[in-house]
Specification:
Layout: E1 48-52, E2 74-78, H1 81-87, E3 94-98, H2 114-122, E4 127-132, H3 137-146, E5 150-153, H4 159-199, E6 211-217, E7 228-234, E8 240-247, H5 252-270, H6 275-289, E9 297-304, E10 310-316, E11 322-325, E12 328-332, E13 353-356, E14 361-366, H7 383-396, H8 401-416, E15 424-431
Parallel strand pairs: 1-2, 1-3, 3-4, 4-5
Antiparallel strand pairs: 6-15, 7-8, 8-9, 9-10, 10-13, 11-12, 11-14, 14-15
Helix pairs in contact: 5-6, 7-8
Length: 433
């Protein structure tokens, strides 16, 4: 932020060209704060000022303050930071702080702006005006660098000057907040793209005749991707390996753990591991990388033989895949030998089941977000039976591949009455004659 230069009278930074002023139709008229990005989102809301000064009764601050529309600005006074903390409610828009006040627990000779730093920590969302002695422009300029919106000289205040300074400080804080939120939004978008590349990779299916489709949709409560992840690779012997998993929880730590598990699965699979040996190693990875001992992950792995007619299935606390074949209703693959989720039981085992697929089939792997949405206004869940019935109907309508997955996710959202609470990941492998 630009630094105000020393001056003979207290002039807000916007008047001296040190900060951008709000647009004006007439330079002779005072400028009202913009309506967008306001603290209260209500142009009719009365501005409120909290004065923190050791002797408010003898202050030179003029109490008759008005905003640009002529409405009075409410003034509260606090003799110290303890009183200020009690009076600092959400309806306070600006703080006028005496820099001469001592900061609790800090020696002022160590840091002459200690009280300002304390207030900025206490009220990060409020505009702050620093009040200093006449001629102490250097200290006021440093206060602006530290985080105050402007500084004023204690013995040169009048009602018009202070009223304008309050409005400009509030407006500048709004602008700073909007800019910070925009930067945070860009950062989240960048994080989202990085996580997406890790959680939802490009499948390695070169040389395979299988068709691949996938769809992912984050739950409504998160800006970032959650802990759902999947992958598909073809090993040199012609076997196609597919996996889908879900780390419990929805924060960035869970998403990062999902990325680690996905990458570890691909590396172990390409190294020749499968079944119980692979899942046991993944459990070791999870146990070493998780931030909390309560975190676990469910996983479904399928390895499809080079001839495409048979597959091995391992389930670690995960819903069983759905298989659809011509002339037969879609159904779930057997799941009687479902092992525990990764990270729950040390030394657990995950049996590998052999299943017959046939000459032509579609195999759908999914996370529980697809089946845990509500049906209607009651508490009933869609469940696996409801999901199977839905897929059967959509297949009978001729939906296949990407179109099938899109229709399935959209219908689940519609049945839920809006966005799902949990993330949804679905992948589809098709084999035709």
């Amino acid at each position: 932020m630009p630094v105000p230069i020393p001056r003979q009278r207290a002039i807000p930074a916007v008047e001296s060209g040190q900060a951008p002023a709000a647009p004006q139709d007439d330079p002779s008229k005072e400028v009202a704060p913009r309506k967008e990005a306001t603290v209260d989102n209500n142009a009719a809301t009365q501005l409120s000022l909290l004065v923190i000064e050791d002797d408010p009764g003898g202050s030179t601050v003029v109490p008759e303050l008005v905003d640009s529309a002529g409405r009075p600005i409410r003034v509260r006074t606090a003799r110290n930071l303890t009183e200020a903390e009690r009076l600092l409610t959400d309806d306070v828009h600006c703080i006028l702080l005496d820099l001469a006040l001592p900061a609790p627990g800090r020696r002022t000779d160590d840091d002459e702006l200690a009280v300002l730093r304390h207030v900025l920590e206490l009220a990060p969302r409020h505009a702050v005006l620093a009040l200093t002695a006449s001629g102490d422009a250097e200290r006021g300029a440093e206060a602006v660098r530290v985080g105050a919106q402007d500084y004023l000289f204690r013995d040169e205040l009048d009602s018009r000057l202070l009223s304008r300074a309050i409005r400009y400080a509030v407006e500048r804080k709004r602008s700073d907040t909007a800019e910070r939120r925009l930067a945070e939004g860009r950062l989240r978008a960048q994080e989202n793209r990085r996580l997406e590349r890790g959680l939802l990779p490009t499948p390695l299916l070169e040389g395979s005749t299988l068709r691949f489709a996938a769809r992912y949709r984050p739950g409504r409560s998160r800006a970032l991707l959650g802990g759902d992840f999947y992958d598909v690779v073809r090993t040199p012997d012609g076997t196609v390996h597919a996996m889908i998993g879900d780390v419990c929880g929805h924060g960035p730590d869970e998403a990062a753990l999902g990325v680690e598990l996905r990458i570890a699965w691909r590396a172990l699979t390409l190294a020749g591991l499968c079944g119980d040996e692979l899942l046991g190693t993944l459990q070791e990875v999870l146990e070493h990388e998780r931030s909390d001992d309560e975190i676990f992950a469910t996983l479904c792995t399928v390895d499809i033989a080079p001839d495409g007619r048979r597959a091995g299935l391992c389930l670690a606390g995960h819903p069983s895949p759905l298989v659809a074949r011509p002339g037969r209703p879609a159904q779930l693959l057997p799941y009687d030998n479902n092992g525990p989720a990764l990270g729950l039981l040390p030394g657990a085992r995950w049996p590998r089941m052999q299943v017959e697929l046939g000459a032509e089939w579609s195999l759908m792997l999914y996370t529980d977000g697809l089946i845990e949405g509500r049906v209607g206004e009651g508490g009933e869940r869609l469940g696996q039976d409801g999901m199977v019935a839905m897929i059967r109907r959509q297949l009978s309508e001729g939906l296949r591949g990407e179109e099938l997955l899109r229709a399935a996710v959209n219908e689940v959202r519609s049945l839920n009455g809006g966005e799902l609470a949990d993330d949804v990941a679905v992948l589809l492998l098709d084999r035709e004659k």
